[in-house]
Amino acid sequence: MPSEVQLVRDLWRAHENGGVDAFLALVGEDIVWQPFLTGDRVFRSTSELRKALADLAEQGIRYDAQLHDLEQHGNVVLVHGILRMSNNGRSDETPVHWAYHFRDGRLRRQSTHPSREDALEAFSALRLLDEATFSLAEDAGSDGERVIRLRGELDIESAPDLERVLLRSRPARQRVVVDLAELKFMDSTGLRVLLRARAAADEGRWEIGLRNVPPTIRRLFDMTGVHAALPAEMS
User: Fold this and answer.
1) CB of 26 within 8 A of CB of 18?
2) Cβ pair 136, 168 in contact under 8 A
3) What does the pLDDT look like over 86-116, one tens digit per residue?
4) DSSP states of 91-107
5) What would the pLDDT profile of 32-43 be if each residue is shown by its tens digit?
6) Cβ atoms within 10 Å, residue 110
7) Which of 75, 113, 148, 235 could staple 119 via S-S, CB 3.0–4.6 A?
8) Using 50, 70 and 90 to split pLDDT, how confident is the model at 235?
9) 3-class secondary-structure state, position 62
10) 64: helix, coil or strand?
11) Which region, left, alpha or beta, applies to residue 105 given φ > 0 means left and ψ of -120 to 50 means alpha?
12) Taking a C-beta distance cutoff of 8 angstroms, is the pair 42, 189 a contact?
């Protein structure tokens, strides 16, 4: 079986020879993408990314990526290169650092970083969290409430799992409590899922609240000022 480094080299070689279509033809569908071209947007499937790139092409945005070198850090292959973009006669050249995250030998996520140092800091944070696997479980609580218990890391890769559970159809007046006692990490993607759930609760006339918010995640709430929208039980 090819190494993860070789798999990334094969992807870039396909891109050089056949463009983005050849690149995407070699990867799976269930990959989370955070490309430089689309700013902060995150795509939760290859089909979503393909459509976004097609939209950019229709707007006259063209790009060319050049690989300089790459290095491996655990299950992540970090690529250093240059991205050249042109739009309506204007051209820009930007150093970019692409990270390809693997699990069980398969590419599962691609993220983009402004510098090598930024990428390494992100990898260190993941190692400090012991690469905790995300899981969730929903069961019945007291007084008919539904309790959703989260464990591990809630990020751009795992947030869709929570979104599918939280945003499904729920009866009016049902109370849903999200228990964060075993959650090690949450990024802005997870926060957005919770805010979307709050909007869905208002529309569907059911309730949502948080329980056992860890100090690190409470600080995220403090920085973003979402306390009014996401009421948390005191613990």
Assistant:
1) no
2) no
3) 987 788 899 999 999 987 788 988 988 889 9
4) EEEEEEEEEEEEETTEE
5) 898 888 776 888
6) 21
7) 113
8) very low
9) strand
10) strand
11) left
12) yes
Q: Look up residue 14 and give its two tokens.
A: 């396909």
CA 44, CA 226: separation in Å to the nearest integer? 24
Tell me which H or E stretch contains 177: strand 175-186
> How far apart are alpha carbons 63 and 3 in whole angstroms?
28
Note if the pTM is more than 0.70. no
Could you give the CA distance from residue 13 to residue 118 in angstroms, rounded to a whole number?
A: 26
Residue pair 178/150 in contact by the 8 Å Cβ criterion? yes
| Rg from Cα positions in the chain | 20
Pairwise CA distance, residues 56 & 202, whole Å: 35
3-state secondary structure of 138: strand
Write phi, then psi, for 229 (nearest 5 degrees): -80, -30
